[in-house]
Amino acid sequence: xxxxxxxxxxxxxxxxxxxxxxxxxxxxxxxxxxxxxxxxxxxxxxxxxxxxxxxxxxxxxxxxxxxxxxxxxxxxxxxxxxxxxxxxxxxxxxxxxxxxxxxxxxxxxxxxxxxxxxxxxxxxxxxxxxxxxxxxxxxxxxxxxxxxxxxxxxxxxxxxxxxxxxxxxxxxx
Length: 173
Ligand SMILES: [Fe+2]
Ligand SMILES: [Fe+2]
Fold this sequence. Notes:
Elements: H1 5-37, H2 43-72, H3 81-114, H4 118-146, H5 150-153, H6 156-170
Bound molecules: fe (ii) ion (2 copies).
């Protein structure tokens, strides 16, 4: 099979692109937790941080979920039994995260509008640490069980196709 330079780059890129998203998920989940514990941040920074977390979880996270559910999972038919089970768990958890994410967005919007006070911090503290823990467990399964099989379960052409779909999702409209 002839493997083009572009396909070879795509193989390297795909796992890297997915891991870049994980770095962002961890970073924004941590920010939300910090907003729930810090009482020393200037009001303008609280507003900006809340808005940027809201933007990330509303706009960017769903793209990563679609990358995994719509682009990656359907192409991993040749994976191991363990990875197949992990893929099913992954998609189920994407659904399970929805309620917690909605609660997080409500808490962030309240803090952005009213400022950081004991009440808005307490509301955020009820949801942000739990979401961070759930994300960590979720990302760890993907990284330990699913991503290592990308190189063997997908052909170079399939990997290149996935990378193209990832980029298309983020292309400016
Ligand atoms: Fe995921
Ligand atoms: Fe992921």
